[in-house]
Design brief:
Radius of gyration: 15 Å
Shape: flat
Low-confidence stretches: none
Number of helices: 3
Helix content: over 70%
Number of domains: 1
Order of helices and strands: HHH
Distance between the termini: 50 Å
Strand content: under 5%
């Protein structure tokens, strides 16, 4: 399974821009951790919502 995951990652990275590779890596990691039961969907939702909130707050401060 590790070899398959590594091959999927390498193949996926060949078709995307450099700036998207970190997000692709994060997505694969989160999905693997969810399969193992280390991360719940509620935790991921919370992480994404807080991140979006921080982005909005930061953008509103820079436009102020």
């Amino acid at each position: 399974m590790d070899t398959l995951t590594h091959n999927v990652y390498n193949y996926g990275c060949t078709g995307i821009f450099e700036k998207h590779k970190l997000l692709f890596s994060f997505q694969i990691t989160v999905k693997l951790e969810m399969d193992l039961g280390h991360v719940r969907q509620e935790e991921l939702d919370f992480f994404i919502k807080v991140f979006c909130l921080c982005l909005r707050f930061t953008c509103s401060l820079t436009n102020f």
